[in-house]
Task: structure prediction
Amino acid sequence: MIYLDHNATTPIAPEVFDAMLPYFTENWGNPSSSYRFGSKLKSAIETAREQVAQLLGASPREILFTSCATESNNAAIHAGLKAFPQKRRVITSAVEHSSVLTYCSTLESEGVRVTYLPVDRDGLLKLSDLEAALTTDTAIVSLMWANNETGVLFPVQEISQLCRAHGVLFHCDAVQAVSKVPINVSKIAFDYLSITGHKFHAPKGVGALFIRRKTPFSAFIEGGHQERGLRGGTENVALIVGLGKAAELAQKNLSDYDVAVRHLRDMLENEILHSIPNTELNGHKTNRLANTSNITFSGVESEALLMLLDQEGICASSGSACLADSSEPSHVVKAMSPFSASSREIIRFSLGFKNTRQEILTTIASIGKSVAVLRG
Ligand code: PLP
Result:
């Protein structure tokens, strides 16, 4: 198998698996119990909190463990609206992940006004559009750092400054940025920031939300007193330990990440764009993650091409894995190029640390062959 879909999910690192294992076997107590067999697990959770905090440049008390980034994203927007009951507007963009867009659409049905900022052909948004949208009825801005389909990076520093200047909370979906670009919440004024473990070699089903100290937050999942009363539900100790370990590894590997993936991504992308006619890059050429390449193959249905690649053992995708079973074209490419058919003719390649030059050469050859077959 040649796995080129790391923006969908990543394999669990062996170190992460080893760190989690005792919490599935001998250490299976409930961390809220008063006897030591349970309560000693609290320190494992707190170690993980420190590891995640370190990766983000946060203080451990600013980290809330969640079940996934979908929960983190929902919870942050929910908290922003709760904090300002008189303000009934959310600002987001047309290219966010479904975990933000679907929640926003539910909020709209409940009377919340939502502004969807447009992007240009390169997938970039205009700060002047954001500034114009920041009306006095805005409670929270929710914008992603790196787009999961194109890798395009939003100017989070400038966005945070605009939000601060207007007294509006800023939530950032940093799911695709974490472990790929440095994150330091002490340098950028995020109020909330979401991450999820399975995009950086921790298991699925565990995420975190950074909540800046003194930023208002009300529980999205209500129940017991876990997570200092900010999230009810018995902690998933093993997965939290895994997230912590993955955060530690991500921090250690961050400086090597760009070098490891960029030249292979560029090799794949340049070869496709130069050797296959009627192909086009979606997303800004440089202002983008080092591992992601989203390419339109004109006249070729994404699903047909993905099927042929799958037969050769190559895993890629036509966009977000969360929407892969829907027949809808990519809302991200559609927002970038509203009048073209290209949103149904795209393939996203997203590389990881372990991909090799040989895998990329094999992929280039397979794509050339498959596109020729499909174009007849
Ligand atoms: N946000 C972005 C940008 C993503 O790529 C994803 C996952 O695909 C999510 C949110 C949702 O993450 P999770 O699967 O942990 O809910």
